[in-house]
Amino acid sequence: NQEFIQQSEKLNVVGELAAGIAHEIRNPLTSLKGFTQLLNHQFSTESDYVEIMISEIERINTIVGELLLLAKPTEDEFKQVCLEELLENVRMLMSAQANLHGVVINHINQQTIHNLFFNGVENKIKQVFINIIKNAIEAMGNGGKITLETTRLDSKVLIAFHDTGAGIPAHLLHKIGNPFYTTKEKGTGLGLMISKSIIESHDGELRINSIEGKGTTVEVILPVC
Ligand code: ADP
Ligand code: MG
User: Can you give the residue ranges of the Histidine kinase domain (predicted)?
Assistant: First the structure.
């Protein structure tokens, strides 16, 4: 337990540092991307090299964007957030991408969170739910179902995301959420690590259960007002 605490403190320090550096990288990156796009227009035929440069800049941008989320929220960023609205928002936001992949998103037991508020940083929690749903979509090559299930526990709420995707082999489950651990060609391996750190900064918990070939469940527990 002592070791665990030290580890999570270490992650906090490294996270703050990473977020700070990411912030510094963002501005020069934006101008680099702008000028590279301009360069593309200068060529009469579209240049493959410039295309590659743009897609690599976009990749850096994705990583930087994820690292920025590691910044610890300050006290004044915490607000009362309506969970029902936030989840509905996320579901709408993600439904286009889901549709494109033949994935349907349902919310069951929605009434359990009617008028339920939690104290938190809306955009960060939103990003966590988007990360989880993105992973679920990516795990379902040939379409499938994402079931969002909400349950009231006395002073907390459980938000479960079930998917019917490829699942995770039992012997790899412990690696999920390690920084840079990814099984995807274009993955960053940062999504779940950062999601976990955001949920923990809200005094919540993030857990993953999975059965290979059947699907995965990601559970988020948050304290409610
Ligand atoms: P990335 O999505 O960039 O790979 P994440 O931290 O979001 O990074 O996820 C890490 C890894 O966990 C993924 O590469 C994938 O192997 C596994 N994973 C995450 N969510 C799921 C899921 N819903 N179903 C199957 N595997 C998953
Ligand atoms: Mg991901």
Answer: 20-225
Digits of tens for pLDDT over the chain (225 positions)? 555 556 666 667 778 888 889 999 999 999 999 999 888 777 656 678 888 898 999 999 999 998 998 888 888 899 999 999 999 999 999 999 999 999 999 999 999 999 999 999 999 999 999 999 999 999 998 899 999 999 999 999 999 999 999 999 999 999 999 988 999 998 999 999 999 999 999 999 999 999 999 999 999 999 999
Query: Is this prediction's pTM over 0.90?
Result: no
ipTM of this complex: 0.99
Please list, in sequence order, all residues whose beta carbon lies within 8 angstroms of the beta carbon of residue 214, skipping any fewer than 6 positions away: 164, 167
Rounded to whole angstroms, the Cα distance separating 116 from 114 reads 5
Distance CA 103, CA 98 (A): 5
* Best mutation site among 67, 182, 218 for ligand 1 pocket (most ligand atoms within 8 Å of CB): 182
